[in-house]
Write a structure and sequence with these properties.
single chain; alpha/beta
Length: 690
């Protein structure tokens, strides 16, 4: 919040050149007694190379107030609604009669028209080549810079509800395009004769009722409210029909509204909801001449906004029927985006690539954009002008690390690996109930504490609410948790160095045996009830019994190996793609020695053989040193007569482990067959590991 200041101090002003992204803002220090002309000189001095061909006097300065972010999307002056052109002689003490806000862009610098055009022309090829932007809120002015799915048609029910004067909640996962959808709706409403007021709670202090209303008052100044306010009543009165300022019905959008769910926001939340409820229930709303111009209020946020005031739902200003879920992009919308992307680069793209992107992301707008960024990076090394499945397979290996670079997903990691009781319990709940389950079947939950954990995970965007329960938000998000979050949250690893062979290569058999000792027995034991598949071989003298699904073992192996082998600079890569092939786990060191681990779980001989043959292809495709098929099984007496690779397969470096265990993972036995460095076949039979 800004405050009055003595008129003879140094000001630090953050400036941005028209058309540059917010991330390229720069600061200028200048005395508060200086005028705008002197500020132009200071700006030219600070950016002397950029403005070397421009007379400082020909620069145009605009006073703005734009929250800073590291967004790379170009910001044009035409997209800024609240701006004031500064005259040459204006004193800065008059322009800034209060201390400039922190973390805010204060000045936009505009080059002379002819110079601006020349600079745009010189860089037009790159400036107007659209980009995928995972974290960008796409307003109308940005659409020529980024790939964007028009939501006008899908917004029709929302716009209709607003037209009826309803008070609406719009919810969806983080980075799923909620704010961009709202920008579309605002465009439509403006054309329909409404005035739209947009507030982002992300930049408002909600630690107290007082700071809430002071923050709202400051934020809404750009809309030239006719009066200031410091409480809910004052907020209501600021939109009174007595003021000539309002000549159209007003629709207010509160973005990041779920911030009021924070532990320190109780007072602010109660005050905000009570104010909205009072406005909605005001009898004067239905009169021929209402006292307030507020027509509708829209709250936007994650699933958490549905939990505000859960203890007293009768006091909520929003009805359950007035909830709009921000659904993912349809396959057709994703196809249109990627067709445009390929066309802009004089390329073609295989429809199967687009279908797979939609399937893995479930249409989540942010993830669709992450895939686009990764694909564009891959294009640099392509000779052909065609994006095919082989290219997409290689790109997928970098998706998770690419996701981790964005603040949205880094915050997700922080929220999941925290040590609060809710955070620990929520991630444990995900491990036991949801991990690796891409099924469309919803999962029922019981009322009570467990439901709160699901709601917390849904608010983070990890789960997706359904009619009767929840399911994983997308296969890509599930992979992110499995490989980027769970190893960090559960850093179990042996306390000794990973075993190596005399040749200096990794001893895979001993690595697996050591990892088995640290498998989470509780996870394995509960999997038959929570994360299972049906076995077609006899288990406990019966067929069609539930056994742990592959993802249970896969997650544990990745978790332990990631924490352990990273000590010797090994990468542990799950779901590693080689063209159209995908192997379960690849271990790779800095010298590019690699090992393929293919998991198979309680399967028939025919299925095991298929995995063996598949592993031959994996190993050869990536040039791995060894390939191991690891068969976890609950089949009765399996180790008495296990299925082994043929001799010629062993000679190709494809080896086998069979790991039998009881229901609680307290009795674990292993049989294995491989070739030693002299080419001799070595067999272990029914060795007890645990």
């Amino acid at each position: 919040m800004s405050h009055p200041y003595p008129k003879d101090i140094q000001l630090e002003l953050f400036c941005l050149v028209d058309g540059a992204p917010l991330s390229r803002a720069f600061s200028v220090e200048i005395d508060s007694t200086a005028n705008v002309d002197q500020l132009k000189d200071a700006i030219k001095t600070k950016k002397s190379n950029f403005f070397k061909d421009v007379d400082a006097n020909n620069l145009t300065l605009w006073r703005v107030s734009i929250p800073y972010s590291d967004d790379e999307t170009p910001l044009g002056l035409d997209s800024v609604n609240d701006k004031k052109k500064l005259g040459h002689v204006h004193k800065l003490s008059k322009v800034f009669n209060r201390m400039p806000e922190e973390d805010t862009i204060h000045i936009i610098v505009q080059r002379p028209p002819s110079e601006s055009k020349r600079h745009r022309d010189e860089d037009s090829a790159e400036r107007y080549l659209k980009r995928f932007k995972p974290n960008a809120t796409v307003c109308k002015a940005f659409r020529k810079y980024v790939y964007y799915a028009d939501q006008t048609r899908s917004n029709e029910p929302l716009v209709a509800a607003i037209g009826r004067g309803e008070y609406v909640r719009v919810y969806g996962a983080r980075a799923s395009g909620k704010s961009s959808r709202i920008m579309d709706a605002m465009d439509t409403l403006n054309k329909d004769g409404y005035e739209c007021v947009y507030v982002d709670f992300q930049f408002i202090d909600i630690s107290s009722e007082k700071s809430l209303w002071e923050g709202l008052n400051q934020t809404l100044k750009r809309y030239k409210l006719p009066c200031e306010f410091n409480n809910g009543v004052g907020f209501y009165n600021a939109f009174s029909t007595d003021y000539r300022r309002w000549n159209r019905p007003v629709v207010i959008f509160f973005d990041e509204f779920d911030k009021l769910r924070q532990d320190d926001a109780s007072a602010a939340c109660s005050s905000m909801l009570a104010t909205i409820r009072g406005i909605r229930n005001d009898p004067a709303r239905t009169q021929e001449k209402p006292e307030s111009r507020i027509h509708s209020i829209i709250a936007i946020g994650t699933y958490a906004i549905l939990m505000l005031n859960r203890s007293h739902p009768e006091l909520s200003p929003f009805n359950i029927s007035d909830n709009f879920r921000n659904k993912g992009l349809t396959e057709e919308q994703v196809r249109e985006l990627y067709y445009e992307f390929a066309k802009d680069r004089n390329m073609t793209i295989d429809d199967r690539v687009i279908e797979d992107i939609h399937q893995k992301t479930n249409g989540h707008a942010g993830l669709v954009n992450v895939c686009g960024v990764a694909l564009e990076e891959k294009l640099v090394s392509l000779d052909r002008r065609q994006i095919i499945m082989d290219h997409w397979g290689c790109v997928q290996n970098m998706l998770l690390s690419r996701m981790k670079k964005y603040g949205t997903f880094q915050k997700l990691i922080d929220d999941l690996i925290g040590r609060s009781e809710k955070q620990v319990s929520a991630l444990a709940r995900y491990r036991t109930h949801y991990l690796g389950n891409p099924s469309e079947v919803t999962i029922e939950i019981q009322p009570g504490e467990s439901g709160n954990l699901e709601e917390y995970l849904a608010a983070l965007g990890v789960l997706q609410p359904e009619a009767d329960g929840f399911k994983i938000a997308s296969p890509l998000m599930d992979s992110f948790l499995r490989q980027m979050v769970i190893p960090q949250a559960y850093p179990t690893a042996p306390d000794f160095a990973p075993p190596m062979k005399p040749s200096g290569l990794l001893d895979i058999l001993e690595v697996v045996k050591s990892a088995l000792l640290l498998f989470d027995k509780g996870i394995i034991a509960r999997a038959c009830a929570l994360s299972y598949k049906v076995a077609f071989v006899p288990v406990n003298n019966q067929r069609n019994q539930r056994v742990p699904r592959e993802s249970v073992y896969d997650s544990e192996m990745i978790r332990i190996c990631s924490n352990w082998l990273s000590r010797i600079n090994y990468q542990v890569l799950g779901q590693h793609h080689v063209g159209r092939l995908c192997c379960d786990i690849v271990l790779r060191d800095r010298d590019l020695y690699s090992y393929v681990l293919e998991l198979v779980v309680t399967e028939t001989v025919q299925q095991i053989q298929q995995h063996i043959e598949r592993t031959v292809n994996y190993k050869n495709s990536i040039g791995a040193h060894e390939g191991w098929v690891i068969h976890f099984t609950r089949q009765d007496n399996y180790l008495q007569n296990p299925h082994w690779p043929a001799e010629e397969i062993l000679e190709e470096g494809i080896y086998m482990m069979h790991i039998w265990h009881d229901e609680n993972f307290k009795d674990v036995r292993l049989s294995a067959k491989w070739k030693d460095s002299d080419g001799h076949t070595i067999t272990i039979e029914d060795e007890r590991v645990i």
